[in-house]
Amino acid sequence: MIQIQNVGFKRADKTILEATQLSLEARQSIALIGPNGAGKSTLLSLMARLLPLQTGQILFDHLDISTTPSQVMAKKVGILEQHSHFMSRLTVQDLLLYARYPYHRGRPKSDDYDVVEKMLAYFELSKLRATFLDELSGGQRQMALVAMVFCQGTDYILLDEPLNNLDMYHARHLMTTLRRAIVDWNKTIVIVLHDINYASLYADHIVALKQGAILFQGAPSEVLTSDNVQALYGVEVDIIEHQGKRLSLHF
Amino acid sequence: MKPFSYGLLASVFLLILGAFSLFVGAYSISIMDIWRQPEVSNVMISSRIPRTLAVLIVGSILGIVGCLSQSAMNNVFAEPTTLGTPQGIALGLLLCSVLFPEIGLLGKMLLGAGMGLFSLLVFFALLQKLTLSDPLQLPLIGLVYSAILGAGVTFLAFEFDRMQMLTVWLNGDFATIIQGRYELLWGALIIGVMAYWMANQFSMLGMGEDLARTLGVPYRALVFIALAMIALATSLVVATVGMISFLGLVIPNIVRQYCGDNLKQSLPWCAWMGASSLLLCDVIGRLLTHPLEVPANLVFAVFAGTVFLVMLWRGDRRAL
Ligand SMILES: Nc1ncnc2c1ncn2[C@@H]1O[C@H](COP(=O)(O)OP(=O)(O)OP(=O)(O)O)[C@@H](O)[C@H]1O
Ligand SMILES: [Mg+2]
């Protein structure tokens, strides 16, 4: 369970995130939606300890992120940032192996190699294993980075716009893989999405942020109404039902 | 070919080059003379062998140091010369020779390393403040930084009449290496081995602070260790033979093309390529104006400058 209590964030007197309360069940996928600049990435960065907490507390399974040692948190929460622009020229295989750092601390053992093999297969990256990251296409790179977060073997996974750069096949493949991972490995995934149809189809719970505050949250079938979506994005949409799921038409 | 056979090929090449280097110099030697004439074997033991070993150690350690700087600073243009480290070290050495002239080579070298580390830490802190939009900005900042340090050092050197020493420190030359004057360099080799031993940890630095921190990597502590190793190894080189500029920039960048940023793979190749290219340059320097010599630093600068320009020409800044 993720508990976010009274967490706010300011940058130079500008409130980016208002004091937020949020409690999220484990073993499900949670979609974070909202317009550009709403504070989604800020919230994720706070959860991943990339930004210092200014107020409040965040707990993962009762582990307080500000008091738990960083080596322990590294096995609990993994994040894929929106812009992961590190310059290292690494092969896909090495990248995944480095993500095992919390377990091998620089001296990989055979189970680390096993996990890497498993993830390469799971994300259909086996053919690209020896390719350098800077020689991959944008989408292939994105898949490799997602696989990397999974290699970290954390219960909680935070993904900031992982569908960036992915084509129709790979976007769907990634979303179904994520769903599978929740069932197979009891993962809890918080994912920032811009396409509310993906959120509707693949998320168990939706949290909508606007101007640093939660506008609404709940199951997709409840909260995805045309009024809500219009209040969130300021765009008029038609919501239709298709095979029991809500879809938005907004063109 | 398997990596093993590449390694074998590389070692054989280096051995041949090393052997060749033993027979090149002002005084010509043939293999037969070594056993027949005692003064010839003396030249070998007191001058040729130390010189060749010194070149090999300096070349390999500067290759390693360059690679390490690039990971620690997260920038492909980082190396002691572009970070102003030799100037920092020279400042330490100079202060030492003025304030504690009796201290001995080891103490001198440690003080130099201390100042070098200090200058690196300041540079690192500076980089944290600035967000570079292009990696090429690092050497520009480094240019200004080393000019400031260099001006201070030159001023002091003038005041205390140590210009001669300063020139020696900043321009590597192996002509003066004889037995008893290079042994400290073995210390640098130990640092190189330690760097290899920690290669996987140092590789994590190249992924940037954010990612490293979420993986529980003690980022700042590792950067500090890397910078300390860089300062210590460079100081050993500066105090014994003098700096060889840009070796640490050019060699690791060539190696990166093939081995990437996995230091466990690239460090040995950086060491090999640094050692063999520097030895080649030193041998060429000895042959060019025989029996006089062109300093290795000068020959290497021509080589490095050319490689660097070719790299910029290809415009492949990401891969560079
Ligand atoms: N480094 C920064 N310095 C100053 N302001 C920032 C910084 N990063 C983000 N902000 C501001 O914080 C607010 C929230 O940003 P955030 O990145 O969390 O938005 P987001 O919801 O992720 O948007 P997007 O969908 O565009 O990724 C924005 O108004 C942005 O201008
Ligand atoms: Mg964002």
Write up this protein.
The complex is a heterodimer of chains A (251) and B (320). Helix content of chain A is 35%, strand content 27%. Chain A is α/β, with parallel strands linked by helices and 251 residues long. Chain A folds into 2 domains: 1-76 and 155-168 and 185-251, Rossmann fold, CATH 3.40.50.300; 83-153, no CATH class. In chain A, helix 5 (110-122) packs across helix 6 (138-151). The longest helix of chain A is centred in the last third of the chain and has 18 residues, at 168-185. Chain A is globular and about 55 Å long. The mean pLDDT of chain A is 93. Chain B contains 15 helices and no strands. Chain B has helices at residues 3-22, 31-36, 38-73, 80-83, 85-99, 104-129, 137-159, 163-170, 185-197, 199-205, 209-214, 219-240, 247-259, 263-288, 296-314. Chain B is globular. Chain B starts with a helix and ends in a 6-residue tail after the last helix. The mean pLDDT of chain B is 90. The interface between A and B is medium-sized, with 33 and 25 residues. Adenosine-5'-triphosphate is lined by residues 11, 16, 34, 36-42, 82 of chain A.
What's the gist of this structure?
The complex is a heterodimer of chains A (251) and B (320). Chain A has 251 residues and is an alpha/beta fold.
Secondary structure elements and their pairing?
The complex is a heterodimer of chains A (251) and B (320).
Chain A: E1 2-11, E2 14-24, E3 29-33, H1 40-47, E4 57-60, E5 63-64, H2 70-73, E6 77-80, H3 92-98, H4 101-104, H5 110-122, H6 138-151, E7 156-160, H7 168-185, E8 188-192, H8 196-202, E9 205-210, E10 213-218, H9 220-223, H10 226-233, E11 238-242, E12 245-249
Parallel strand pairs in A: 3-8, 3-9, 6-7, 7-8
Antiparallel strand pairs in A: 1-2, 1-4, 4-5, 9-10, 11-12
Helix pairs in contact in A: 3-6, 5-6
Chain B: H1 3-22, H2 31-36, H3 38-73, H4 80-83, H5 85-99, H6 104-129, H7 137-159, H8 163-170, H9 185-197, H10 199-205, H11 209-214, H12 219-240, H13 247-259, H14 263-288, H15 296-314
Helix pairs in contact in B: 1-14, 3-9, 3-10, 3-12, 3-13, 3-14, 5-6, 5-7, 5-8, 5-12, 6-12, 9-12, 10-12, 13-14, 13-15, 14-15
The structure holds adenosine-5'-triphosphate (ATP) and magnesium ion.
The site of adenosine-5'-triphosphate has 11 residues of chain A, from helix 1.
